[in-house]
Amino acid sequence: MLHLVCFALIALANAFANPGPCIGDCWTHDPGLYQRKSDGRYFRFATGGGVRLSSAPTITGPWKAVGDVLPGGSKIDHVGSDNLWAPDVHYQDNTKKYYMYYSVSELGKKNSVIGVASSDTMAPGSWTDHGSIGLDTANNPPYNTIDANWIRIDGTPYLNWGSFWQNLFQARMENPLKISGDAPRQIAFNGTLNHRIEAAFEFQHGNYYYLTFSSGIGGNYDVTLPAQGMEYSIRVCRSEGGKGNFVDKAGRSCLESGGTTLLASHGNVYAPGGQGIVQDKILGLVLYYHYADKNKGLAKSQYQFGWNRLNWVDGWPTV
Ligand SMILES: *[C@@H]1O[C@H](CO)[C@@H](O)[C@H](O)[C@H]1NC(C)=O
């Protein structure tokens, strides 16, 4: 009986909202989303044989594919420099520029470099490549160097990155184009199975910094369907300082496999992940992600752009 009650509570807690509407070009994979300061126009960056760019007047669309960010690839001399991944975009007031971090990597290998490009407008054709930020796996560090995520903490810029291996790390940025020499800190680790967490995205709200990540198996689910519950889901941890000591809602350390589920498969929504948070001028904090729509198909080429406004309960975000 107690088990039944527990099940009912879990079912209730997992009643996720469906994604908000999307009109037009709604394909995406590992999206990065940013609203332009000047006119509020949205730009959506995605991984798909390079960094693909789409644009829309509002988050609901109509979305239009507008081109590639660095169509010629990166100037970094490394395998994968013609196939950039995992875009992360932010704006800096001091330089009045947008910066996009990207990964150059050999799929599934710890053989990677993080690079950066900048632009005044985010529009295609406006991006200048600056190459490596000085973060790579050449000396066989404990981490992989993909999935960059920039964040300002107490006025100081930091970068989160990682994925698989020893999972998520953080270090201070010297400037937007260069990582500092400070020793990287591990900020999240799932000790079980293959350490399947990736795609850090951190943001601030109220008195806390929130660290979101994708947990589980991502990929072409039309080729291999993971056991139920092992597919991608979006997790969240929080910390007061933003630089470590992240815990989940149950108080479990996120260095010890903690991480509260923010969004998981439900209804036709399968394996949401590759998430980020954007501050919409009207809606406030919005979670965005990719997911497979069971009605449309499970391949990466069929992934859909999802978004939900965040609600807050006892200092924790919910969807
Ligand atoms: C950690 O990994 C295990 C095994 O893959 C998984 O069941 C669990 O949900 C993961 N937890 C987090 C917070 O990623």
Automatic annotation (TrEMBL):
The keyword Hydrolase applies. GO terms for molecular function: arabinan endo-1,5-alpha-L-arabinosidase activity. It catalyses: Endohydrolysis of (1->5)-alpha-arabinofuranosidic linkages in (1->5)-arabinans. Pfam families: Glyco_hydro_43. GO terms for biological process: xylan catabolic process. Gene3D superfamilies: Glycosyl hydrolase domain, family 43 (2.115.10.20). Residues 1-17 form the signal peptide. It is an enzyme of class 3 (hydrolase). The active site is at residues 30, 198. This is Arabinan endo-1,5-alpha-L-arabinosidase. It comes from Aspergillus nanangensis. The lineage of its organism: Eukaryota, Fungi, Dikarya, Ascomycota, Pezizomycotina.
